[in-house]
Amino acid sequence: MSRLSLNSMTADRWSLVEVIDACAEFGIEWIGPWRHKLAEIGVEEARRRIDDAGLRVSSLCRGGFFAAGGAEEDNRRAVEEAAALGTDALVLVCGPPSGKDLAAARDVIEAGIERLLPYANEHGVRLGIEPLHPMMIGERSAINTLGNALDICERLDDPGVGVVIDVYHTFWDPALGDQIARASGRIVGYHVNDWLAATRDTVWERAMMGDGIIDLPAFTRMIDAAGYDGPIEVEILNPAIWDLPREELMRTTVERFERCVF
Amino acid sequence: MSRLSLNSMTADRWSLVEVIDACAEFGIEWIGPWRHKLAEIGVEEARRRIDDAGLRVSSLCRGGFFAAGGAEEDNRRAVEEAAALGTDALVLVCGPPSGKDLAAARDVIEAGIERLLPYANEHGVRLGIEPLHPMMIGERSAINTLGNALDICERLDDPGVGVVIDVYHTFWDPALGDQIARASGRIVGYHVNDWLAATRDTVWERAMMGDGIIDLPAFTRMIDAAGYDGPIEVEILNPAIWDLPREELMRTTVERFERCVF
After folding, report:
1. In the sheet where A232-234 sits, what is the strand order?
2. How far is residue A151's CA from residue B175's CA, in Å, rounded to a whole number?
3. Which of A249, B53, B158, B251 has the fewest Cβ atoms surrounding its Cβ within 10 A?
C-alpha cells in the first residue's frame, strides 16, 4: 500500500484538487498527475496542495511526441514542471510516425530524447520511455516493445534515461521476462491495470486490476527481481471506471491493488 | 496480378459461389476460402466450382485454436479439407490462452501443432502459423510475433510447418526485417491489407491497401528477398469494405493490389 500511486488518468473526470483530496482521504501516499490536470491550477498551486496533503509525486505524464511541431520547447517545459513538482520521473509517450518509414520515425524519437537528456539531467529528472502497445502505433507511439525502448537506453547510455513499464502495453510480449531482466537499473516507473480478454477498443477499455487476463503477481515478481522498488502507479484509461462513484472507485483501486498486484 | 488471391473474408457477406464468380469475372486467379464459407456447399462442390472457374486455392483458413475442446479432431478435418481443395497451405490461428500463463498457453499450441504435423504431411498440406497482432491475444491467438512463430518452426524443424505473414499483424514489429529474413524457406503465405492510423476497433477495422500507414512495397521487398514467390492474399476484415457494391469492391481490390503492394 505504501507503494500505491494514483495516476490522475484513473479518475480523469475529477479535477486535480479532487484527485489529491481523494488520495489523502483513502490513505494513498503517491500521485501521478497528467499535465492537462496540472494546467487547471498551475504547477505551483498543484505542488502546494500535494505537499499540504502529505503526498509525493511518483511521475509526471507526459512528454514526448517528438515528431510534433513545438515538441522541443514543450518537452523542456515538461521537464521544468516535473522538477517543480519534486518528482524525478517524466514519462515519455514518444509519438507516432509521421510517415510510413518506422525506422526513420524511431530515429527521430531517439534523437529527440538525446537532445532533451542534458536539460533533464540538469533538472534532476529522469526520462522514462514508455513503450505503448503495438495497437497504438498510428496515433500515439512508434516505440512498441520494451526491447526497442531498451535499445535506445543502451545506445544513449546515460542514467538519466530509462523505461516505464506498463503491464497493459507489454504483457503479451514473448520476450517479456528477458527484457524486464535486461531493464534492471533502468526502470523509472511501473504501471498496473489489466487487459480484458474481449478488448474491442484500442484506447479506452483498460481494466481494473483483477478484471482481466494479466498475471499481475508474476509480472510484479519480474519487476522486483529487476530491482525496482519505487512507487507503482494505477493508470486506467476507461470511461466506465471514470463513471464509478467516488467512494467505489477509490475503495476498488486500493482493494485490488492490495489483492491482485503482488 | 497473377499472384493476387482473394481471401473470402474480404467479401464475407457474399456466398462462396459469389466470391468464386467474382474472381473469375475480374481476372483473379487465386482464392483463399474460409471454412465457414466452404460449409455452405461442402468441400466437393466447392472444389468443382473452383476448378470450373479456372481458379486455384492459395490456402484454407483456418485451423488452430489448440486449447479449445475438440481441436484435435477439427484440425484433422481442416487438413482433409485443404487437401481436398488442392491447396498445400492451411493457415493456423493458434487460439487464445485459456488462463493467465502465456508461456503455458504457447506450449499447448506448440504441442498441438506437433501432434497435427504428421497428419498434415501425409496429406501434403503445410501448416502456416499466422502470428496475430498482440491486441488479439485475449480471444484469438497467443502467438503474437513472427519471432515467436519462427521459434516454434525451428524447434519442430520440419518442412511441413512454416509461417503465414500478414502485414496487419506484424508491420509494427521493430524486429520485422530480421524476422522476415529468418523466415526464408518457411513462408507458407503472405497476406496484404492496411492499418488505419486512427484504428479504434481491435477486430473489424482492417483497411484496403493504400488507405493506411503500412509501407507495403518495402514489406513486399522483404518477403521477396526471403524467397517467397507464391500467391498473395488480400484479406480485409471490415464491414465497411463488405458493404461496398460488388463492382467497386472488386475493382478497388485489383487496382490497389497492382498500385500499392509492389
Report:
1. A56-57, A30-32, A4-7, A232-234, A187-192, A161-166, A126-129, A89-93, A60-64
2. 12
3. B251
CA-to-CA distance for A245 and B128, rounded, in angstroms? 49
Compute CA B176 distance to the chain's CA centroid, rounded to the nearest angstrom: 18
Q: How many CB atoms lie within 10 A of CB B160?
A: 20
Kindly provide the ipTM of the predicted complex, given to two decimals. Answer: 0.97
The residue among B137, B47, B48 whose CA lies nearest residue B99 is B137
∠A169-A171-A177 over CA atoms, to 5°? 125
**Rounded distance between C-alpha atoms, residue A47 and residue A56, angstroms:** 9
Place of cell 489448440: B66
User: Does A195 reach chain B within 8 Å, measured CB to CB?
Assistant: yes
Q: With the C-alpha atoms ordered B187, B189, B194, B198, is the resulting torsion angle positive or negative?
A: negative
| pLDDT tens per residue, range B126-160 | 999 999 999 999 999 999 999 999 999 999 999 99
- Structural domains in chain A? 4-260 (3.20.20.150)
Å from A26 to nearest chain B CA? 30
- The pLDDT tens digits of the residues spanning B35-94 come to 999 999 999 999 999 999 999 999 999 999 999 999 999 999 999 999 999 999 999 999
Contacts of B204 (CB under 8 A, 6+ apart): B237, B238, B239
CB neighbour list of residue B47: distance below 8 Å, 6 or more residues apart: B84, B85, B86
Of A100, A134, A200, the CB nearest to B201: A200
Residue to mutate among A202, A203, A204, A205, with most B CBs inside 10 A, is: A202
The answer to whether residue B107 neighbours chain A at the CB level (below 8 Å) is no
Q: What cell was used for B129?
A: 502459423
Which grid coordinates are listed for A217?
503477481
Summarised one tens digit per residue, pLDDT across range B237-251 is: 999 999 999 999 999
> Given pLDDT bands bounded at 50, 70 and 90, which one contains residue A143?
very high
CA distance B213 to chain A (A): 5
